[in-house]
C-alpha cells in the first residue's frame, strides 16, 4: 500500500516537474525571442513563428522554396510533438491572432512561377536578371563602398522586376498560412505574371503572349476553391506596370498581353507596382516597388530612421534619371536643365551616361540622403521606383503628376500628401513658369524638417522585410498589402452574402 501510494505520489510530482519544465522552456523561448536584438538574427523569430505554424497546421512547409527553411521547420516539429498538450493554451492564443487572416496558397504548377526563373537570362530583353534572383529575389548583397548603410547584411541590389519572387517568399513565411482552403479568408495565386510577359514583349505574337495567362485562368477557375466566390477571394502580385497587361485587340502590333481583361482576372484582386487609376473601384491596386533595404528586425529600421534624422543634407534637390528624348510630352529634359542651371543646389545623377550608377544602391542612396528634395517626374509611365528609394533615404519627393503616387499607393501612402511631399504641376514646368529651385527654397527650414519627419516615419510602410525573418512590431509593405486585400475581400464577401452585386 505504502509503496504503491508513494509511487503514485512520485509519479504525480514527476509529472508535475516535467509539466513545469516544459512550461518554463516555452516561456523561455518566448522571452528569448522578444529580448534578442541586433544583427545576426535571421533565424530567431521564424523559430517561434514556424514552431507555432507547425503544430497548428502541421504542414506549412509545402510551399517552401528554401531547403534550410524546411529542415528548420521539420526540426521544430519533432520538438513540438512532445509538448503538444501542455501548449494548447498558447496555441489557442496564436490561433486567435490569425482568425480572419488565414491565407491559402495555391500550389501552382511550376511552369507558372519557379520554372520561369530557370531561363532567367531571357526574361528581360535588355539585360540579364539572373544575379538578381539570388537571396529569395532580393538580389546580391550590396557592397557599401562609402559606409553609408548601417550594416551590410540587409542591403541588396534589388531589381524592381523581382517583386513577384520577393512577395512569394514573404508569403511562404507568413504567420497565418493554412493548408485547408475552407479556413482561408483569401487565396494567393503565386503566378509570376510580369516575369512571364517580360519574355515575350518584343517580337512574339499575341497567342504566345497570352498563353500563360489563359492557361492560368483555366487552371485556377477549375479548382474547387474558385467556386465559393467566383474567384473574388483570390489575388496575385505583378512586378510590372499595368500597361503591359491591357492589350485591347489581337493585332500583333499592339503592346502586351490581355491578362487584365480575362474574365477570371476581373474577379481577382491584383497587386501591382503601377495600377490603372485611382483604385477603389478597380481590381488592380498599386503597392510599392521594392527598394534596396530588406531588414530582418525592427531595430534595423529604427537605427536607419535615426541616422536619417541626423544627416546634414548639402543639396537642396536632386534628380536621378535619364531624359526621354523621344517623348515630346516628357518634362525630363526641362527638369535636367533646371537642375544643371541650379549649380551646387542640385545634384544630377545621369542614368543615361556610360557608367550607369543608377542601379547601384550606394550611389543612389548616398545622393538621396544628401538631398532635401528628390524630383520624381514621370518616365515611360507615371510611377517610378525612385520614389521609394527617395523615401527610404529620407528625401522629400517632388511630384509633377498625381498619378505618380497620390492616385496609386492608396493603402501605403497617407492622404495628407502635402505633409510629406511637394507637388508642382507638370504644365507649369512645360510652360517654363516655375523655377524648381526657387519654389523649393521658399519652403522654410521648419517645414522641411516636419516633412522629412513624416517621410522618415513612412519608411516601414514602403519596404519589404527580408523574407527569411519577420519584423516584430512594424508592418511593412507586404503586411499593409495583405491587410488591404483582406479588407477588400471581406467587403465583397459581405456584399455577396447580402445579395448585393458589386460593380466591377
Ligand atoms: C492531447 O489531448 C487530446 C485531447 O485534448 C487527446 O485526445 C490526445 O490524446 C492528447 N495527446 C497526447 C499526446 O497526450
Ligand atoms: C530559354 O530562352 C531561350 C532564349 O530565349 C529559348 O531559346 C529557350 O527555348 C528557353 N527555354 C525554355 C525552357 O523556356
Ligand atoms: C560585411 O561586413 C563584414 C564585417 O565588416 C565583412 O566581413 C563582410 O565581408 C561584409 N560582407 C559584404 C557582403 O560586404
Ligand atoms: C478544413 O476546415 C473545415 C472547416 O473548419 C473542416 O470542416 C474540414 O474538416 C477541414 N479539412 C481538413 C482536411 O482538415
Ligand atoms: C493539412 O496538412 C495536414 C498534415 O499534413 C493534413 O493532415 C491535412 O489533411 C491537410 N489538410 C488539407 C486540407 O489538405
Ligand atoms: C505565334 O508564334 C508561334 C511561334 O513563333 C507559332 O507557332 C504560332 O503559329 C503563331 N501563332 C499565330 C496565330 O500566328
Ligand atoms: C466572377 O464572380 C461572379 C460572382 O460575383 C460570378 O458570377 C462569375 O461567374 C465569376 N466569373 C468567373 C469567370 O468565374
Ligand atoms: C494592326 O496594326 C497595324 C499598325 O497599327 C495596322 O497597320 C494593321 O492594319 C493592323 N492589322 C489589323 C488586322 O487590324
Ligand atoms: C498624416 O496622416 C498620417 C496618417 O493618417 C498621420 O499619421 C500623420 O500624423 C499625418 N501628418 C500630419 C502632419 O498631419
TrEMBL record:
Keywords: Glycosyltransferase, Golgi apparatus, Signal, Signal-anchor, Transferase, Transmembrane
Secretion signal, residue range per the UniProt entry: 1-34
Membrane topology: Single-pass type II membrane protein
GO cellular component: Golgi membrane
Coiled-coil residue spans: none
Top-level lineage group: Eukaryota
Protein name per the record: Exostosin GT47 domain-containing protein
Amino acid at each position: 500500500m505504502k509503496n504503491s501510494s508513494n509511487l503514485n505520489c512520485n509519479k504525480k510530482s514527476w509529472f508535475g516537474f516535467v509539466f513545469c519544465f516544459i512550461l518554463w522552456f516555452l516561456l523561455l523561448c518566448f522571452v528569448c525571442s522578444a529580448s534578442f536584438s541586433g544583427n545576426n538574427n535571421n533565424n530567431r523569430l521564424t523559430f517561434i513563428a514556424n514552431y507555432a505554424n507547425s503544430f497548428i497546421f502541421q504542414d506549412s512547409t509545402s510551399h517552401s522554396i528554401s531547403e534550410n527553411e524546411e529542415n528548420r521547420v521539420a526540426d521544430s516539429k519533432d520538438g513540438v510533438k512532445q509538448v503538444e498538450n501542455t501548449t494548447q493554451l498558447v496555441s489557442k492564443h496564436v490561433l486567435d491572432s490569425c482568425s480572419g487572416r488565414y491565407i491559402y496558397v495555391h500550389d501552382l504548377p511550376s511552369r507558372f512561377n519557379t520554372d520561369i526563373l530557370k531561363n532567367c537570362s531571357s526574361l528581360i530583353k535588355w539585360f540579364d536578371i539572373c544575379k538578381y534572383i539570388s537571396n529569395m529575389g532580393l538580389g546580391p548583397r550590396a557592397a557599401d563602398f562609402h559606409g553609408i548603410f548601417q550594416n551590410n547584411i540587409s542591403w541588396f541590389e534589388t531589381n524592381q522586376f523581382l517583386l513577384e519572387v520577393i512577395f512569394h517568399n514573404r508569403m511562404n513565411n507568413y504567420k497565418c498560412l493554412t493548408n485547408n482552403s475552407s479556413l482561408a479568408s483569401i487565396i494567393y495565386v503565386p503566378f509570376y505574371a510580369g516575369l512571364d510577359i517580360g519574355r515575350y514583349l518584343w517580337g512574339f505574337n499575341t497567342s504566345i503572349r497570352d498563353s500563360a495567362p489563359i492557361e492560368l485562368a483555366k487552371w485556377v477557375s477549375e479548382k474547387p476553391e474558385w467556386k465559393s466566390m467566383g474567384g473574388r477571394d483570390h489575388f496575385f502580385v505583378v512586378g510590372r506596370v499595368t500597361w503591359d497587361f491591357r492589350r485591347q485587340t489581337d493585332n500583333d502590333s499592339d503592346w502586351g498581353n490581355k491578362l487584365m481583361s480575362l474574365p477570371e482576372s476581373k474577379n481577382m484582386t491584383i497587386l501591382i507596382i503601377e495600377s490603372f487609376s485611382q483604385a477603389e473601384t478597380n481590381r488592380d491596386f498599386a503597392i510599392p516597388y521594392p527598394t534596396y533595404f530588406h531588414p530582418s528586425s525592427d531595430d534595423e529600421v529604427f537605427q536607419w530612421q535615426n541616422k536619417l534624422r541626423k544627416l546634414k543634407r548639402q543639396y537642396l534637390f536632386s534628380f536621378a534619371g535619364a531624359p526621354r528624348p523621344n517623348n515630346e510630352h516628357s518634362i525630363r529634359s526641362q527638369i535636367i536643365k533646371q537642375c544643371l542651371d541650379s549649380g551646387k543646389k542640385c545634384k544630377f545623377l545621369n542614368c543615361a551616361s556610360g557608367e550607369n550608377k543608377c542601379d547601384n544602391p550606394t550611389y543612389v542612396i548616398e545622393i538621396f540622403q544628401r538631398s532635401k528634395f528628390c524630383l520624381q517626374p514621370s518616365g515611360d509611365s507615371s510611377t517610378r521606383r525612385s520614389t521609394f528609394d527617395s523615401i527610404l533615404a529620407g528625401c522629400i519627393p517632388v511630384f509633377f503628376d498625381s498619378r505618380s503616387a497620390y492616385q496609386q499607393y492608396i493603402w501605403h501612402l497617407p492622404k495628407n500628401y502635402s505633409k510629406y511631399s511637394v507637388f508642382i504641376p507638370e504644365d507649369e514646368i512645360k510652360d517654363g513658369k516655375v523655377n524648381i529651385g526657387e519654389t523649393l527654397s521658399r519652403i522654410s527650414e521648419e517645414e522641411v524638417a516636419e516633412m522629412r519627419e513624416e517621410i522618415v516615419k513612412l519608411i516601414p510602410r514602403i519596404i519589404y522585410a527580408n523574407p527569411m525573418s519577420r519584423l516584430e512590431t512594424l508592418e511593412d509593405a507586404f503586411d499593409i498589402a495583405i491587410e488591404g486585400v483582406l479588407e477588400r475581400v471581406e467587403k465583397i464577401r459581405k456584399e455577396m452574402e447580402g445579395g448585393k452585386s458589386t460593380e466591377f
